[in-house]
Fold:
Amino acid sequence: MEQFLEHPYLLVGVAVVLYFIGLSIYRLFLCPIAKFPGPKLAALTLWYEFYYDAICNGQYTFEIIKMHEKYGPIVRISPYELHIDASDPDYYEVLYSSREPRNKYVFYTGQFGTPEATFGAVDHYHHRRLRAAMNPHFSIQRIRRLEPVMHVVLEKLCARLEDWKKSGQPLQIGNAYSCLTTDIITEYMMTQSYHYLDEPDFLPQWSATIVSVAELGVYTKQFPWLLPLMKLLPPSWVAAMDPGMGQLLKFQENCLQRIKSILATKDNENEILKNKLSDQPTFFHEILRSNLPDHEKTEGRLAQEIQATVGAGTETTAHTLSIITFHLLDNPDILKTLREELDNLEPDRNTPFKLQQLEQLPYLTLLRRKHPTPKNCPGPLTEIPRLDHSTRHPRRHDLPPHAPQRNHLPLLPPLPPLALAKPHLSQTPRKIPSFLQQRVTTVRGYEPGQGGIVPGDGNAVPQVRVRARGYDQGG
Structure:
């Protein structure tokens, strides 16, 4: 013993080794989810997930599918998580319930560097309070009032596309759509639009910035101190080490400067409206007038809100529009029928449509249900965890009696965070409802089975991810 005391570094080394041995024994044999099958490395450490997501470029979702093929319907994929191969697509509505409280999981929300934004609010009731202040601005009535702005921006996009066509050069349509969605959402939310559609090359680096935020997430999940550390370094150093990280920090700084400008002019909104395309109140001026407490109106939190809202509202919609454009161009018969329907509504193609008119067109409505939308087109190749906020036990999550996973959930530890990987769900065969089958057969140029909805036996197999929290921490 005296020899150990004479060598403190040796004592520390032995303590560290014993700690990891004890932690390994606990995670493999003693923790509440130790009995579930899965790779032993995944049960031991989060580095297993990090390897497939960071080193193998986002392959962990597909590795999980292989785990199910080897280990069965319930597998352990990390020290804290189970993944359930559910067989009922209705489970999506249970997991992301609008009735039951659901907390978010900080391991997921912390990766984007916006812990104070509504997206980063972990507690269900905190998120609901922040969201309530935003909801009026995203109502259908407000969206309809935005139509004149959307018409102006869309006309600018069409003019830019005509000019680009004359150049004979190929166009990355996703970049153009990113500029479109950014100009609309920034005009809607802030003092003025970014006017990215005025850029001659459609600003490809802007799309790269938004995408880099998601790509960096796999690193910041594992290293939550990475973003705060990078903010302490000169921006030129960060950009030299990692261009994606440099773009992200530049975007965050731009958001902060925007919100400072809004706060500096919060008492002079009438002057601001003169520079806007519409006379709608500015989103953040309304937030400042809301009944949120003062600590929710700081420039730091509102800057994060800009980053989260612009980031989420830009690339998701642009990605969906890109996929729709591809499918229309790849299916000329569908495109022809759609054009005929629009021409019947308004023969003059230079006349803008009203949103209410478009919502009543049967063929367009059918295509909107059948083809990609932000809810069903392939999105992030990851899960979006939720924690059940209630305290009932055992957990059955109010599943319908026929749901096969009812018999599994009581085996799980109480209050596990759950998640569903949307790519698995979006690629699952589903039955076409009978009323939709009838509508499909009555619309010209459209047959059941084409495109995104695939007739089948109705046995959808989404992947549901379960995080069993509270047992130990660390990687």
